[in-house]
Every structure is written in structure tokens, then in C-alpha cells.
């Protein structure tokens, strides 16, 4: 499969007192189209910084990010924003829904931001709400939904424009175990059935076990790569054993 996302020797430095600290130290990776990749590491390992750079939310100190053939790190802010809107979808730990908008309007938000009337995409919104099991709650407001339902809306919104890559930052971190597993099943199904490319950042081996491949990050570098394959059982035990052998 073609490479849809590539990072080339990413370095990210932040000022700290009179000096600097390296959050990322020469990270390189490739993600193929339709692949589900997890980036796993403890707090402060650099995994969230990596996701921000991969999605164009921040710029590296040096190195390059290429999404669907476009080198985004060299773009000016306006063109980087336009490319990010066209090529990426984001799901975060906190759902970031607009309280005054209905569920359907929240899902249609990427179209509205692009100046494209939501009415032109009603069928797409309906399809996504059906996929995440919320077709009967299209007119509800976010505060009328459970936490798991709100994350389902956030996932549908992230998929609205058919992005080249979906980036998920601890999407189950604010959910209980059962509800989190339901969200992970939806992500896995998006990769398996729809061919959606997904990069998931997590500290949880049970979440990472849904991925085809796990990149283990420590001290701003990729420590190891663990191939799991596309599996339906999502058994975390093999991954946990491998992580234990790494001292994690």
C-alpha cells in the first residue's frame, strides 16, 4: 500500500529556563494507507508532541512531515491550515463539541468551516451518524448525550470529509473501560471496513492492542516497533509481554 504519512528526522525543542529541552530527537516513521498505528509511551515521552507535528498543529524545530504527498512543514500558516482541514481528522480526549449546535450540526462542522453549506452534505452526515449508532439523536445537543455518545459524535465529525488520515489523541482517556472499548471498536472498524488510515496516541496497552502496529516512544525517540497485525480479538497480552521485556 502507498505511504500516506511520513515523518523524516523530526526534532522538536522547547525553551526551558536559559536552555532548551528536546521533546523529540530525530523521529522518522512511515504509515501506509489503511494502516492502524498506535504510538505508545508514558507521560512526557514525546508521543503527544509527535501527534501534533504529524497533524500540522505545530511545527518541528527541524525535519519534515509529509501527508498524502504534501510536505506540510514547509507551508505557510494559511496553506498548512487548509491542508490540515483537507487531509486530516482529529479526535481528542476531550470531545470539543460545540454546545449550541445539534449532533448533526457538530458532525457537519468541517463543511461549515470550509464555507460549504451543511445541507449539501446531509446524506454524508446521516451515514456517519448511522455508523456510530446515533442516527436517532441527530437533533440532540451535546449536553443531552453521555460521554461515550459525545465521543462518537467527535469521531463522526473527524471522518466527515473523508480525511487521508485520522489522528486520535487518547480518545478513550475520558471514558470508562466498556465505553472506551466501544470507541476503539469503531476506530478498528473504520480501518478494517472503510480503509481509514489511523494514528492513535495512548498510554494504555489495551487501547494500543487494537492497532496493526505499535511504535513505543521513550525520551523523544522511537524505542521499538511491535507488529500485531489486523486481528479481531484485540488481545493485549502479547503486547503487554513485549512491553514488559522492554522494561515498560
Descriptive notes:
- The structure is a single chain.
- The two termini are 31 Å apart.
- This protein has one domain: Rossmann fold.
- It has a six-stranded mixed sheet, with helices on both faces. It has a four-stranded antiparallel sheet with strand order 2-1-4-5, covered by helices on one side.
- The chain contains nine helices and ten strands.
- With 248 residues, it is of the alpha/beta class.
- The chain is 33% helix and 28% strand.
- Helix 5 crosses helix 6 and helix 6 packs parallel to helix 7.
Question: Short description, anyone?
Answer:
The chain has a single domain, classed as Rossmann fold (3-Layer(aba) Sandwich), CATH 3.40.50.300. The protein has a six-stranded mixed sheet, with helices on both faces. A four-stranded antiparallel sheet has the order 2-1-4-5, with helices on one face. The model has no long low-confidence stretch (mean pLDDT 91).
Per-chain topology:
Blueprint: E1 3-16, E2 19-32, E3 36-40, H1 47-54, E4 62-67, E5 70-71, H2 77-87, E6 88-92, H3 103-107, H4 109-113, H5 122-131, H6 147-159, E7 165-169, H7 177-194, E8 198-202, H8 205-208, E9 213-218, E10 221-227, H9 237-245
Helix pairs in contact: 5-6, 6-7
